[in-house]
Amino acid sequence: MVQTLCFFVTAQLYMLSKHRLIWGGTLQDIAVLDDPEDEHWLPNFLLKTNRWSNVTEKESPSALHSILSRFGADAIRYFSGTAKISKLVLWENIWSYTVWMYSELLKQTDIKTRVEKDIEMLLEDEVWLNIETRSPLNDSLGKKCSGVHESL
Q1: Contact, 32 vs 4, CB < 8 A?
Q2: What range does the domain containing 69 cover?
Q3: Rounded distance, CA 121 to CA 126, Å?
Q4: Count of the separate structural domains present in the chain
Q5: CA distance 47 to 31
């Protein structure tokens, strides 16, 4: 279930960085479809509501905050408490997928600058206000990453 959460948060960050769209649902509006016939299935998400909103560049920091808060932090609090896994380890699981996803998006020259800005925001503490005391992505990668290219 933790990997499913990681995929979903990464998918939300992808939609924001690639298409400047944010989904208006909640964790309760998500279902994962299982295929009992296929033991190697990938998660298929069923979104019970189809409310997507366009995000302007000016709104992108608050959209990132919303994704991190509504999907990342809420689920991490739950798993951290029930499975006794540290929050940093759970965030690192999300980043393992997210860093790969961003490395792929950075290859797309038409959105590269926008993707770099999103990564920079995720490394800054401001977008994490009322979620974590500082950016766990920065903690995961270490303070060595001074720029976007070095972090990926």
Answers
A1: yes
A2: 2-151
A3: 8
A4: 1
A5: 7
